[in-house]
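Predicting structure from sequence has reshaped protein science. With that in mind, we have picked out one protein's residues alongside their backbone shape tokens:
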Amino acid sequence: MSSTDLIQLMQVIALFCISGTLAGILAGLLGIGGGIIFVPVYYYSFTYFFHIDPADAIIMATTSSIFTMIPTSLSSCLSHLRRGNIDKKLFMKWLPFLVFGVLLGTVLSKIYGGLWLSTLFGCILLFAALNMIVISKMPPMFEELPKPPYQYIMPTIISCVSVMLGIGGGTLTVPTLSVFRYDTVKAIGTAAAVGTVICIPGAVFILFRELVSDVTINNSPVLTCGHIVFLAILAVIPFSMFMAPVGVAINKRIPPAKLKVIYGVLLIFTGTKMLLNGLGI
């Protein structure tokens, strides 16, 4: 490895560490999973520093993000479980459909993966920003959740889309449950449990997929297995886990409403850029 390559590698690792720090703080501040931060950072790092084709880079970014979120999603789930914030009855009814959705998303992202994922990710970020700034303040549209079997469409779509985009359960689960007259605390706690189902089985399915397909991406960073970039995962996890309690401490000093607006604006900027990139604009 030349000195130039070494300097470039160190720059990328530093960027990953910074993103892990930011994701950890925001997780503590707003209870937001790191995927909506990790995926754009990973994507632009892979395309800018390593000159990886954007169609491969977006799959690498979403895939690596799933692995990155395992420790924080598990920790969050256990914390909510201890506090009784998880709707166990609803979660158990959703569980088979969540797992099926994860498996479906893993297969679809492999077969149909490409720049359209960047477009979809941009749309989801804009939706998350809209929910954070506007929708979350609106009254529920429906009085109760739909009856089975229609209700089971929800967890299937949530887990399928989430694993394809490398995001946790909260981004889609909380806004979905908020449309109905559903307790906010229970929605957040149940979303944390959904996140573990997305991340852990998702990581297992993805690892199996990559080992079976034995794909090699040109210009991949060191410690890469197919579309899984373990260098990024290992650089991010310690910082995201360490900084989450710091975010919780800051949360007590800064009004959450202001933070949500600031973060929502950031999501709009990032989401628009990812959307335009996917559309080739």
Q: What stands out?
A: Residues 47 and 227 are 14 Å apart (CA to CA).
